Fold:
Amino acid sequence: MSTHSQVSSKAAARAYLAPHTIRVRRQQAIAKGVIWAAAGVTILTLVLIVGYILFNGFYTRKVQDFPVTPYVEERVPIAEDGTTMSIVVERSMRIRDITFPKLEEIYTGRLPFLGYLTTQNRQTTAVVYDGDGFAAKAEAFVLSEGRTFDFYGDDVTYAGSAEEIQSILAENDGTIALVPSEMAEGLRHGKVIGLLQSTVIVNPEILQLQGGRRLDHLKLGQVADLISGAAPAWSDVGGPGIVVQEQDLQNNIPGVYDPLPAVPVVPANPDALWAYFDDVYDDASDAPIRENAVTADGLDEYINTVMETPGAIGIIRTKEAMDRDLPILQVERITHWLNLRPQLLFHAPSRAGAVGGLSYIIINTLAMVLFVIVIATPIGVAAAIYLIEYSKQGRLVYLLRLGTDTLAGIPSIIFGLFGMVFFAQFLGFKTGLISGTLTLTLMILPTVIRTSEEALKSVPRDIRDGSLALGATKLQTIFRVVLPAASPGILTGVILGIGRAVGETAAILYTLGSNLALLHSINSPMRVLSVHLYMLIRENVSLPNAFAAATILVVIVFLVNYTTTRLIGRLNRMAGQ
Structure:
């Protein structure tokens, strides 16, 4: 039969279908489409949620406003005789550059802890090379006029040789040293980081409130646009305009603004401007500067020109701007780094979790899970055995099941309230592992009991009767026949309960505690991953660390579920054999 004939036959067959059959088939197709759509939306939602958490857990991208431009200097001129300075830190320190204000804080003793810059638990050891008059030049560069490092106490260590600096770097993981640039490369225990010290200053009117808005920062690259003419007016970057007087308006509508031109102030030696352009153009010496730029000779004339010229913008060193309290326009900077590093799994947390790792918290979480399993599993399974194998199915059992189902739907915060009042206060266990574990046990018992009941019910009655007929006692039948057959279902219930316990926060926040220390006794307060995640977000401690903790929590739940699935499959195969 030809293809055309086959098609004609099928069309004819469809033509003779009853209307009811056609309607049923159409309904089936619609139902199938709805089911597929619902499944697709569910899977897509799951992928988006988990994917977003994992992505931010492993990788962090942060946008910040800095009082300096992104231009990084690794060889910083600090004296008119050509002396250049480099900043050297201990090699394992997670820092690539530092702003001038932070450098000043370190060498005046106001930043004794480097963790907020490096996310590592390290105390600051400030060092300066003291040979060939270098220390005096470094003091003059970093500090205000007339001040010395000694003025601020003993916060700065003087080193007379490269060997001494090398020794300090090897012994102190929080070392930061100011050394001559030619010495920096020979310090094998250290690495050179850059200094951010170019600051954008503007005419004061640029920072004034206008139309309910104020320009307080520029995005990356907008400084170059203002200087080169790509953004000819301040309004092009969100800045102010010129107020047009009402008598000058043809339409007599007040509140109209004309564009305020951007006027770059160029020093006679425009290294400061070109330094910024190094991050924007391939050849900074060919960077365009708009035609209306004003040239100024000398620092004082340069600053006065910026302060007196409407719409003026200039770039000078941060120290010069800070010493004169000049209006500074912050510049947006984008930083990105690997968030979930191996060190995070092995280092202890510090400073409320803002720095350090998660090792103690992970161990505490696993210890809590182990205690909950040890306590909840035998109690839940024993209760299910009694309800199925021994109890008479009457009103009492009905009330027990109703109470169990009710407990399963109670909000976890109520369990937390009960645990705090009963276990921590009335029984005197205080806030700690035992109070938190017992609270979580009460919370997951309904799940364990009900799933264990269903698993025991699924075991055929014939198996029980066969065991009893062979002379086994009821207890032997339960432990040697029924429980092995029901173990996959029981294990599923236990894992569902554990999954709820691992992610629980409200029930254990006031019973388990939030101490960052490592668990050392069954009554010691501690913090687990879910509580740590909550505290990091609620107190705005560290969003990257919060995502890292969330990622580890997701991985733990996944590993538990995967292991359980494999174990259940193996038990099912053994039961089938």
